[in-house]
Amino acid sequence: MDHLLAAAEEFTSPGRVLDLREYGHGNVNDTFLVTVTGLAKPHFILQRLNLNVFRRPELVMGNLCIVSRHVRRRLALALLGAGRRFEVPRVLLTREGRDHFLDPGGSFWRALSFIEAAETFDTVKDTGHAQEVGYALGRFHHLLSDLSPDHLADTLPGFHITPGYLAHYDEVLGRQGGSRSPEVNYGLRFVAARRAWAHVLEDARAQGKLGLRPIHGDPKVNNVMLDTATGQAAGMVDLDTVKPGLLHYDIGDCLRSGCNPLGEETVNWEAVRFEPELCRAILTGYLSLAQDFLTETDYAYLYDGIRLIAFELGLRFFTDYLAGNVYFKARHPEHNLVRALVQFKLTERIESQAAAIGAIIRDLR
Ligand code: GN1
Ligand code: MG
């Protein structure tokens, strides 16, 4: 990749780059782990922001700095419990003191501190892992519960607004012609049957039943780092989508990711399931902290949030497939179609277990 080493060196002064390798499986940005010598910390994360998605990168950096500083200030005063730690990435500066580097080709690079002695997994291993994933989201929301969402910019207008994704889907479909595979026909029918309900969270927001708060935006399983020694949540990464939103977007996203043991990248979409025991574990971890700030109405919309974010992500992948894979990175032309089918199946499994999920929520509150 052009300018990769030059970008890493911008953030390495006065040290030296020893190693540079791709890191994680992000669908939008390009992420690298940099190993250095001569700095206080041996690693940092280097990312090239996708400017097609993040059109105002300076706002993304602004939100990241505000949230990272707020969280670290509160953590300095918090008692986490014996042996626990919790970190979020810190923004690193270039040798000129800037929070990003623009290379001669116009790419936007930024660097973040790396959470050492911690690891992530793409799927949940067991209920202990699931509970830690829920705990991490609860801790994150708790740490931000005294930050007004007015301090954060809307870096991604329309993000998690399901009716907006439906409008975009209609527009893409309007441009389509030709024959359709059975999988595409399944997707079309799937979306059609859920259109009216897909407004549920935005309607509740418009009616003043749910309010905006600072959210993570992407609290999937592999954005929670686990301490390699204890297995406990050591922090949350990927703060690009931090912005004002509904907590339900985050809770739904965490559960659609954490309760699907096959993971969102499986090709075996017909076998996808939503595991109630993982749901119970994640909510146990989450509510151990979130009980402090969730309202009666928040609880009333939890099930809808879980169902909706799985449906919404399926819709986003499906639309991107129909549009020719212009948003999510795809390794082959059908990749986003398969990803969509995984989320649609997951949505069906959530729907068929609505009573059990409702009982878990009632049990834990
Ligand atoms: C994208 O790039 P990544 O993997 O962090 C997407 C999320 C999706 C996720 C699904 C800005 O996140 O909304 O839930 O893929 N991020 C953006 O894996 O669209
Ligand atoms: Mg992300």
Q: What topology does this entry show?
A:
Blueprint: H1 4-10, E1 16-22, E2 30-37, E3 43-49, H2 57-77, E4 91-92, E5 101-102, E6 108-113, E7 118-119, H3 127-144, H4 162-174, H5 182-192, H6 200-206, E8 213-215, E9 224-227, E10 233-236, E11 243-245, H7 247-258, H8 276-290, H9 296-300, H10 302-322, H11 335-352, H12 354-364
Antiparallel strand pairs: 1-2, 2-3, 3-6, 4-6, 5-6, 7-9, 8-11, 9-10
Bound molecules: 2-acetamido-2-deoxy-1-O-phosphono-alpha-D-glucopyranose (GN1) and magnesium ion.
Structure in words:
This protein has 365 residues and is an alpha+beta fold. The protein folds into two domains: 1-114, Phosphorylase Kinase, domain 1 (2-Layer Sandwich); 118-365, Aminoglycoside 3'-phosphotransferase, Chain: A, domain 2 (Alpha-Beta Complex), CATH 3.90.1200. Helix content is 44%, strand content 13%. Strands 1, 2, 3, 4, 5 and 6 form a six-stranded antiparallel beta sheet that branches. The N and C termini lie far apart (50 Å). It binds 2-acetamido-2-deoxy-1-O-phosphono-alpha-D-glucopyranose and magnesium ion (MG). Magnesium ion (MG) is lined by residues 218, 238, 240-241.
